[in-house]
Amino acid sequence: MNNLRVAWLLPVAWFYWQPSLSEFAQLFPNTAVFTGLFPGFAKGLEGTLRVEVVGKFRVVEIHRDDSSYGDNFTYLSPGIIGHLLKFRPHVIFSSSFGVWTILALLLKPLLWSRVIIAYEGSSPGVDYRHSALRLFVRRSMVWLADAYVTNSQAGKDYLIDVLYARQERVFLQPYEIPDEKTLPGSGDIGGDLPSLERPIFLFVGHVIPRKGLSVLLQACATLQARGYTNYTLLVVGDGSQQDELEAFCQEHGLSDRIQWIGRVSYDKIGSYFKSADVFVFPTMEDTWGVVTLEAMLLGKPILCSKGAGTSELVVHGENGYVFLPDDPHELAGLMQKFLENPQLIDAMGKRSQQIMAQYTPAAAARCLAEVAELVMAN
């Protein structure tokens, strides 16, 4: 079966897709990734995948809401039709329910292909549970597809309970999995780091309402009111909310404890993970959230909101804690645990690495390969 031609249709071939797909391509050398936007290879994976950029990727905002994913339409080039007719894949993995997935399903009779829908995960902003039209289209696509893979239990439940996917054809397997070799980072992120108060809490992400940084800063203000000032918060990333949140820090006397790093390149992000003590992911809504897994892979305890799909891999009380995304007082209490019991940091960090030992790009690739072989056998 390793002579199968397999096409992956990805609106954006983000870095976090690449480790699993690189392993998959070793199992099926005739694998091609077609994408509307390619940011380049993650460090260490250069040239491990055949990647073809098709047309131009564009997101058309219908209704903007920075506290959620908003309502939008992703434009992808119809030129994908020509690429698929030329490549003639036996199996097509297509991301989510966009226009390329629709085209792949329509081409099935002509190509004699099998189509597998890869659904990252479930969240209110992308599920469209209250849109009769969207649900009708998605249910039709699910009916036409041959199988489905998803990172999370929430994604599996959505496919089965809402879109009526056949349960025996829904496969739960985290496939957007980081690889430590793509997060090299020297650990040296500046001469000022040794002088920072520890423990160091780390936030990585866009500084927009959906990512929940405001809740984290409110938790810091709560800690200050309780008399806790012996820590530092590093904020890696930038975005539209930064000025507002920097003003909040000044108003609440937090400026000395909050370090605004700004955006850094992907190949340097590992340095910040390695140098921090506790990773905090306070997102209001994320279908998955690979950044949590990157921190776990590098041995960090996790504070993760239930709004993230990756919260399913955080074992509450073992490698960190899971909290409600809109409750700064709960988050403050969990941060306080690390301030009062610093021995938790090493113990929970080791447990994070133990958990991630089960979720590797190679394991994901093997599962994806089994799904491909299954649909070809039926």
What features would you describe in this structure?
- The protein is α/β, with parallel strands linked by helices and 378 residues long.
- The chain has two domains: 6-177 and 360-377, Glycogen Phosphorylase B (Rossmann fold, 3-Layer(aba) Sandwich); 181-356, Glycogen Phosphorylase B (Rossmann fold), CATH 3.40.50.2000.
- Helix content is 37%, strand content 20%.
- The strands form three sheets. A seven-stranded parallel sheet has the order 3-2-1-6-7-8-9, sandwiched between helices.
- α2 (80-87) packs parallel to α3 (99-111) and α7 crosses α11.
- The chain is globular, with a radius of gyration of 21 Å.
Helix coverage percent: 25-40%
Top-tier CATH class of the largest domain: Alpha Beta
Q: Tell me the structural class.
A: alpha/beta
Contiguous uncertain segments of 5+ residues? none
Summarize the model shown.
37% of the residues lie in helices and 20% in strands. The protein folds into two domains: 6-177 and 360-377, Glycogen Phosphorylase B (Rossmann fold, 3-Layer(aba) Sandwich); 181-356, Glycogen Phosphorylase B (Rossmann fold), CATH 3.40.50. With 378 residues, it is an alpha/beta fold.
